[in-house]
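note to self — DONT lose this again. spent like an hour looking for the file last time. sequence + predicted structure for the chain T wanted, 166 res
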Amino acid sequence: MILVSVVTILSFLLEGIMSNIIGITSQWLVPMFSVVSLIIIYPYFNHEEGNFLKVCFALGLFYDIVYTDTLIVNACIFTIIGLFIRWLNSWMSNHAISVLFMTFLTIIFYRIIMYAVLTVVGFIPFELETLGTSIISSLLLNLVYVELLYLITDYCSKKYKIRKID
């Protein structure tokens, strides 16, 4: 569980740091490290889905409080993303290529859900171009991040014999 804690805390803090470095107007590098960390930590829960979903909710709640100033919105969305990640892991094995594909699908899913919520509450108008741009801008940096994080955590889990789902 130490590896899970380190990955989630590191990703959460690094997302804030990268947001300050890159800036909000970036067209290609939008960090979503907290969401991506959920993909990396899922295999370490060893079929304890309840605990994984609790971590998803807690991470989403912290995300709401620290980054978005909303309450419960991202907590619920992160929990839904956790269910989506669990479903993806039931269909795919856990290796470098599948983690990239799961990240790709998870980012698209997260952006669609968030865009739908923002459109329903009237914060933004419905435009498919805006949705497409937000998805594309999220992919590059996060795919690189998840691959690096996967390689590091996989190395650590083999070196220290940490059990995970493959």
